[in-house]
Amino acid sequence: MLGGKLMTVIGDEDTVTGFLMGGIGELSKERHPNFFVVDKDTETKDIEANLRTFLARPDVGIVMITQCYAERVRHLIDAHVEPIPTILEIPSKDNPYDAEKDSVLKRARAVIGGEG
User: Fold this and answer.
1) What are phi and psi of 6, to 5 degrees?
2) Alpha-carbon span 65 to 42, nearest angstrom
3) What's this protein's family per the entry (predicted)?
4) What is the pLDDT of residue 3?
């Protein structure tokens, strides 16, 4: 936990496993996990549903999502304007991070440097 708030992760099995091994795994009082494993058969609607769930949970402070799956739910990420929970796009083993695609970084650049 981070300051009383959980970190969550949405990503491929290797990414999620790495974070779980790092100790971020938790279950809510209702026994809902703070992670969601996505594979090649996962439908976009399932990623959307889990992202919405994590963003709505009052115990969540950070939602980490691998950038390749963030691309599939970009409309939800772009629509999220609250500072908490923060959405962080992260690389995966097979997909490097591309700063040009990161919505949060684009917003920060717009505020700080006047670029969009």
Assistant:
1) -85, 155
2) 14
3) Belongs to the V-ATPase F subunit family.
4) 62
